């Protein structure tokens, strides 16, 4: 009966021992893996793995940034296989080469030099170890802090230049426009000449006025009547843009400067006409009088018929003599001594 009870106990002990052994191996492997992670770049091998004998060698992996080297290895220096166990492995020859260590890529912190906005009037571009500024128009300098004085180059062609931050402005002279006062204004578009023809010119215009008008815009009429040469022989009446002459008798023309030849109309009815400036004169035939010799002279008023009766006629008279008298004026007697010798 006792032998039957001891057999299950032995099986249990064997099982427990195997489980502990497996657990220990698992812990040993885990420790070795963790040691590899904690010390990157180092690989340790036992002497039995090397063809050279029972030496412990360290193989270094390639690294861009090596760390500080460890202390020199000696015979008494322990070699750590994992984080929990260590063994001192002696070698017949001292290991004088220091065990190298390596580091992975170091993280670099980028500095943003544009964070403080150093470019006062421009755009900042961050670069390794510094920055550059692209200045706005009208600014210069490392930080775009200097204003460019554009007026020194005289950009305003027909005006006055005023410098301003980030630019300039032009105050154009009369007749010019554009950002640089380089464009001529065509004033004739607005028809400034009230009574004339507009001629555009650089920076202005001129008006060609018709007769009777004056002024820059032909807006003032000329009083031609102030000049006595306009109506020489007549009365002047001023009008917008001109004048009119009312000529005196015997004169004609715009300025009453032409004499009328009245004799062409034969004004002297019984006489000869003589033209004169502004008039005429009639030299009347005998028996006629008046300006145009249109009036008959009554010669009978002067009693020309000495011994007879006077009868007036156009341009003359006739005497009807008394008996015994004869002659144009009845001045001779028929029985006078003068007739005796006839």
UniProtKB/TrEMBL annotation:
Disulphide-bridged cysteine pairs: 114-124, 135-144, 151-161, 172-181, 188-198, 209-218, 247-256, 263-273, 284-293, 300-310, 321-330
Gene: LOC109478926
GO molecular function terms noted in the UniProt entry: calcium ion binding
Entry keyword set: Disulfide bond, EGF-like domain, Glycoprotein, Repeat, Signal
Name of this chain's protein: Fibropellin-3-like
InterPro entries in the cross-refs: EGF (IPR000742), EGF-like_Ca-bd_dom (IPR001881), EGF-type_Asp/Asn_hydroxyl_site (IPR000152), EGF_Ca-bd_CS (IPR018097), Growth_fac_rcpt_cys_sf (IPR009030), NOTCH1_EGF-like (IPR049883), Notch_Cell-Fate_Det (IPR051022)
Domain EGF-like positions: 110-145, 147-182, 184-219, 221-257, 259-294, 296-331
Presence of keyword Transport: no
Domain of life: Eukaryota
Residue ranges of coiled coil: none
């Amino acid at each position: 009966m006792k032998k039957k009870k001891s057999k299950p106990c032995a099986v249990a002990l064997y099982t427990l021992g195997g489980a502990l052994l497996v657990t220990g191996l698992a812990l040993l492997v885990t420790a070795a893996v963790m040691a590899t992670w904690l010390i990157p770049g180092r690989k340790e091998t036992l002497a039995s793995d090397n063809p050279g004998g029972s030496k412990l060698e360290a193989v270094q992996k390639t690294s861009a940034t090596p760390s500080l080297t460890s202390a020199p290895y000696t015979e008494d220096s322990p070699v750590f296989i994992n984080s929990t166990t260590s063994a001192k492995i002696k070698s017949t020859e001292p290991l004088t080469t220091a065990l190298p260590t390596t580091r992975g890529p170091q993280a670099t912190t980028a500095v943003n030099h544009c964070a403080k906005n150093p470019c006062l009037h421009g755009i900042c571009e961050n670069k390794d170890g510094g920055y550059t500024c692209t200045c706005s128009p009208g600014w210069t300098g490392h930080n775009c802090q200097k204003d460019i004085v554009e007026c020194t180059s005289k950009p305003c062609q027909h005006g006055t230049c005023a410098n301003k931050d980030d630019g300039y402005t032009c105050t154009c002279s009369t007749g010019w426009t554009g950002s640089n006062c380089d464009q001529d204004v065509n004033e004739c578009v607005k028809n400034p000449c009230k009574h004339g023809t507009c001629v555009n010119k650089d920076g202005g215009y001129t008006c060609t006025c018709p007769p009777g008008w004056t002024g820059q815009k032909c807006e003032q009429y000329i009083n031609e009547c102030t000049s006595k040469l306009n109506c020489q022989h007549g009365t002047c009446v001023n009008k917008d843009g001109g004048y009119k002459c009312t000529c005196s008798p015997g004169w004609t023309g715009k300025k009453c400067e032409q004499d009328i030849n009245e004799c062409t109309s034969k004004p002297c009815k019984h006489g000869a006409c003589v033209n004169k400036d502004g008039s005429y004169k009639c030299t009347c035939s005998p028996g006629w009088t008046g300006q145009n010799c249109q009036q008959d002279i009554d010669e009978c008023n002067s009693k020309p018929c000495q011994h007879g009766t006077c009868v007036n006629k156009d341009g003359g008279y006739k005497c009807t003599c008394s008996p015994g008298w004869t002659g144009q004026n009845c001045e001779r007697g028929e029985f006078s001594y003068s007739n005796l010798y006839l």
